[in-house]
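Q: Here's a chain of 425 amino acids. Please give me its 3D structure as tokens.
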Amino acid sequence: MRLQLRAKRTLIAKLIFVAVVVWQYTRVDQAVSQGDNSNIETTLQSTGEAFDIFDDSKIQQFNNSEGFDTKPAPSLNASHVGKDVEKILIIATAPIDYGHTLALWTHLECVTNGIDRVIIAAPDSYWSKGIVELVVNKFLLAVEDSNATRTYPPIETVFYLNNRYDIGLWCDGITHHLGYQFNGTDVPDDAKLPAIFLINDSAQSLRPYDSLTRKITRWALHEQREGASPDDLGVKITSLNGLLYQRNRGVRHHGRPGGSGFYWIESVYRGFTPHALPKFWRHSCRKMYLKNRVPCKTAGDRKRCIVDAYEKGLADWFSHEEIDAMFPSYRPLEWDIIVTKEYEKAHGDVQGYPYDQWLTGRGWHQYLGRMWNFPMKKVGKARNMRPNMCTLLMEDRKWLEELPYPGIEILQTYRAEMAESLQDL
């Protein structure tokens, strides 16, 4: 009898949960159909507050989970009054087509709330410079003409030789534009470092989302407390997605040097506290500026090598207590079938690792979107998942479709030049 009562309570709780989600999206759909944009951002933001699985709002099945234990940011108190941390977002983009350029716009519109500076790091080719500058100008004009209730941060554009993919653009932005290098083991006492957020154009934002920004900000303020040390445990990196089963920390996949096949934080969108920045730079950036140790210089698949060695391998440089993810990359292994049973009756199977990562746009991503208001989708995937709320400032997309994107021949020539430039280092 007690088990039956518990099952009934669980079912009722799920029905209430689904009803709230449907109600929230009904409000958004009504606003869109009536042309009322004033409350859309507020509605979607509050939805995100309620349903981020690994943010401050928690559910019991994750509290006791080995791999995805929630690591809520510490509460702010009187000791934090008057303290602040600069928050800088670096967007790595190569605007080769409509989808990736649209991703840049959606990030400017939806993940910049709470950010102090935005830096767009892009290839230094003529087509890249022209497209990025045009998009930024269009965006700034759209903000000026809109009745937006929030302010947007200043945007800076920088252009670099893009022979090391996203990680190279991020590192060049940190090293050359911001001027940070950490060749030693310690950070100077007087160095007031910013919190750094890194995102690329491989995914498009779907709704306003600042939960990751707020979480890193609170941990960054916690690092400023009296007596704090860079060696203190506490979250230093948070990614939008990750796979963090502690028992697999350090496990390597054959053929993936420096990359962990079962333990990593994905690099699509990450935030770093000031105490994390030096270690990240030494792991992912330092070798890029040593001529005889250029990352993956002789690898057959340089892109795969760089991703495995300098993005996936990063998680193992930090303790398990120092890294976190807002959402799981795959359906968690410890989930009992009852967690998604009712959902699957209506929408189909939600498969687990390694069959259905969120970026495929299939069952697991759709589940995260419908049930947890997941804020992004991979470029070219999940086209019909739901309306994009991150182009509200864009009156039409025709101009975006007609930009002078590089053709196949131009891209092939460009990539050959990048490979050749790497051999000259």
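Q: Can you summarize the key feature?
A: The radius of gyration is 22 Å.
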